[in-house]
Write a structure and sequence with these properties.
heterodimer, A: alpha+beta, DNA Polymerase III, Chain A, domain 2, 3 domains, nine-stranded antiparallel β-sheet, eight-stranded antiparallel β-sheet, 26 strands, elongated, B: alpha+beta, Alpha-Beta Plaits, DNA polymerase, domain 1, Dna Ligase, domain 1, four-stranded antiparallel β-sheet, three-stranded mixed β-sheet, 13 helices, globular
């Protein structure tokens, strides 16, 4: 194999690869990236056996071929090379080394045979559709903070993506919850996604998807089967197993009869929550919301450290209500609001509370109060 | 430090009319002597003796019911006085404790024997009961010494006189040598402590295992056990070893619930709640597994502990079969904020908490077995 590739293209491919490759591996080949040069591209393929990412980079290929080298090390090398450099990769297939040359820098990395590299089995996808990057970005970005990290509830360790009936017709819906809070985000159902099976996309895949989506408007090809999901752009393909489990019936969790409505400037609210929670004990982080007509008092009373209180002018027209929340959860949901005011719908101090942006039901959040 | 006929002494202190009468503290449900005063002991009355027998031996004895509260209070007062001497106190019971006085001579500017004599007279003056002291260079000898000169005794076994002291004493005096072992030793011709001196450590280890090594040391007046000062309770847990190893989720579930209830009962009694729920398992091949989960708010309810432990158990099931299961809570704190967070996905949790509160009321009134979940019968 002999190929030359521009440093920035190589860096972007290796950034993707190294983030999939686990830092510690008991199987040596899993620490490596598979480099395949053919035609006018070099493919970089990395896997942790659950996720596989393939990056196609334009390159000048003098001699087709393939090899594998340690992903983190190659990434570090490329990262430290000067911007704009051309990087030559070559492997004679016999020395057990891949040579990397850029300007006057020269490196030689130990290789492992390409035949040992596990390639994720291709599978039949039941459902294929195209979605704009910003749509997917919103669906996953707004839901991911609620993903559970609790391993015993592995079926919550991801975002549940499925087709569902929304208020105005069918929607593509992403739901995540850890039992303390829940996010339910809807988007118009793309053509072709009507038969989408419900799948739980693992947390790590959601993070990798975020990198793949970037900031542009590209169209993403999404393919889904019972066991796998694939997101592809012309350059990058991200394939992941989905979590083998049943996502709980979240619809029972979403309160429908909450009538006490609070409207507040989300940013102002978040700053106030952040300020008063400074004095709360590290552990409970409970913030009390006391509501009276058009007035919200946020308070924290931590017997060991102190107390704090802040008053906000809000829109509230119902009877007096006191309700406590974990400050962290309030901050997280408040930070999801970016256009309009945050609207909270309460029932009582013991019932789940709903939050949305204005009257927009396409992104709703549910948070469980704490007793204060 | 060992109090003299502790319960009886407290009773005599609180009721001076009893001072010159033989008294027996005890009776109650099981009808046995808990403590007899020294006057009653002259007639042959002993602790743990059935009441009817004690009455036969000493018909004139006054029977006094147990007043645990008074004994605990007296014990606390004594503890406070001991605390002034050293922080290294290992209580064995309400009326007995080891004190490590190493290094206290410089602090109190007087030797340990004097400190202890002063302690005894202060306890007599301030608490109104008498104690006996045994002073020596290790726990085993100190304990023996405390019995030598009872009541109001003070005995000292110095390092130099240790071997002379042990010479000719029966092996039953050694710590851990009960009637069964005594018999076994007798078969080998070992009746006195000095009989043990004839054997090497290896011989004794071969014949009596780890106990043999202990006998070797003790017979030479050596005991390396440290005084372990009381530490605050760090966790509350219950565990059980099965009669037969099991991997059956149903069987395990029954045990899990019962252990959760027992853990919760203890936590409730202590007014504690734990932020971390711990599941302990021992597999058939003696591998020990421990799984833990940190909660948002501390757990005290059996239902909360069980729900979390059950999730941990589900994940650990593939490691079965198991020979032991344990459940506990740790990172203990105040119960005030216990069981206050609710899982969004566990809609019936508040109802189950209310049920537990109601069943606790019933159990408090009619006994722990008065009402239980069907799951407890699995």
């Amino acid at each position: 194999m002999k190929a030359s590739i521009e440093r920035s293209a190589l860096l972007s491919a290796m950034s993707r690869a190294q983030s999939v490759v686990e830092r510690r591996n008991t199987i040596p080949i899993l620490a490596n990236v598979l480099i395949e040069a053919e035609g006018e591209t070099v493919n970089f393929r990395a896997t942790d056996l659950d996720i596989e990412v393939i990056d196609k980079s334009p390159a000048m290929v003098e001699q087709a071929g393939a090899t594998t080298v340690p992903a983190h090390m190659l990434h570090e090398i490329v990262r430290k090379l000067p911007d704009g450099a051309m990087v030559a990769l070559s492997d004679d297939g016999t020395s057990g080394r891949m040579e990397i040359t850029a300007g006057r820098s020269h490196f030689s990395l130990a290789t492992l045979p390409r035949e040992d590299f596990p390639v994720m089995a291709s599978s039949e996808y039941d459902c294929n559709f195209a979605a704009k990057a910003p749509v997917l970005r919103r669906l996953f970005d707004k839901a991911k903070f609620a993903i559970s990290t609790e391993e015993t509830r592995y079926y919550l360790n991801g975002v549940y993506m499925h087709a569902s009936q929304g208020a105005d017709g069918l929607v593509l819906r992403c739901v995540a919850t850890d039992g303390h809070r829940l996010a339910r985000i809807d988007a118009d159902l793309p053509i072709g996604a009507e038969e989408l099976p419900g799948v739980i996309v693992p947390r790590k895949t959601v993070a990798e998807l975020g990198k793949l989506l970037g900031d542009d408007e590209a169209s993403i090809a999404v393919s889904v089967s019972e066991t796998k999901i694939r997101f592809a752009t012309p350059e990058v393909t991200l394939t992941s197993k989905v979590i083998d489990g049943t996502f709980p019936d979240y619809t029972r969790v979403i309160p429908v009869g909450n009538t006490k409505r609070l409207e507040v400037d989300a940013a102002e609210f978040a700053r106030a929550v952040d300020r008063v929670s400074t004095v709360s004990s590290e552990r409970s982080r409970a913030v009390k919301l006391s509501l009276d007509e058009d007035r919200l008092v946020l308070s924290v009373n931590a017997p060991d450290s102190g107390a704090a209180e802040e008053e906000l002018a809000v829109a509230y027209g119902d009877q007096h209500l006191e309700v406590g929340f974990n400050a962290k959860y309030l901050l997280e949901i408040a930070s999801q609001v970016d256009r309009e005011n945050a609207v909270f719908m309460f029932n009582s101090s013991g019932d789940p509370t709903l939050m949305r942006e204005g009257n927009d039901d396409s992104a709703i959040y549910v948070v469980m109060p704490m007793r204060v | 430090m060992d109090c003299d006929a502790f319960y009886a002494s407290v009773e005599k202190r609180d009721n001076p009319e009893l001072r010159d009468l033989p008294i027996i503290v005890g009776g109650g449900q099981r009808g046995v002597v808990t403590t007899a005063c020294y006057l009653a002991r002259l007639h042959g009355v002993r602790s743990a003796m059935p009441m009817f027998q004690a009455r036969k031996l000493c018909p004139q004895a006054v029977e006094v019911p147990i007043r645990m509260g008074a004994y605990i209070e007296a014990s606390r007062q004594i503890r406070a006085l001991m605390d002034e001497l050293t922080p290294m106190i290992e209580p064995l019971s309400l009326d007995e404790a080891f004190l490590d006085l190493t290094g206290t001579e410089r602090l109190h500017k007087t030797p340990p024997a004097v400190q202890l004599a002063r302690l005894a007279s202060r306890i007599q003056a301030e608490v109104g009961i008498t104690i006996s002291i045994g002073l020596s260079h290790n726990k085993f000898l100190a304990k023996i010494a405390s019995d030598l000169d009872k009541p109001r005794g003070m005995a000292l076994i110095g390092r130099a006189e240790t071997s002379d002291f042990l010479k000719g004493k029966p092996v039953g005096m050694l710590w851990g040598v009960g009637p069964a072992l005594q018999q076994k030793l007798a078969q080998e011709g070992i009746r006195k402590i000095d009989d043990l001196l004839r054997y090497t450590a290896k011989d004794l280890a071969n014949r009596f295992g780890s106990m043999g090594l202990r006998l070797y040391d003790l017979s030479r007046g050596k005991d390396a056990r440290k005084i372990s000062a009381r530490s605050p309770v760090k966790s509350i847990s219950r565990e059980t070893t099965f009669n037969k190893d099991t991997a059956d989720p149903e069987v395990l579930d029954g045990y899990l619930w019962r252990l959760s209830v027992e853990t919760a009962d203890r936590a409730k009694a202590k007014g504690k709640a734990g932020r971390v729920v711990v599941l302990k398992l021992k597999t058939s091949d003696f591998r020990q597994l421990s799984r833990r989960l940190t909660l948002e708010t501390p757990a005290q309810h059996a239902d909360t502990i069980y729900t979390v432990a059950s999730r941990l158990l589900q994940a650990a099931l593939p490691n079965g079969p198991f020979r032991l299961l344990g459940v506990g809570i740790t990172e203990l704190g105040d119960e005030a904020a216990a069981d206050t967070s609710t899982d969004l996905l566990d809609i019936s949790a508040p109802k189950r908490r209310a049920i537990e509160a109601a069943t606790d009321t019933i159990r408090a009134k009619y006994g722990k077995e008065a009402i239980k979940k069907g799951r407890a019968l699995k």
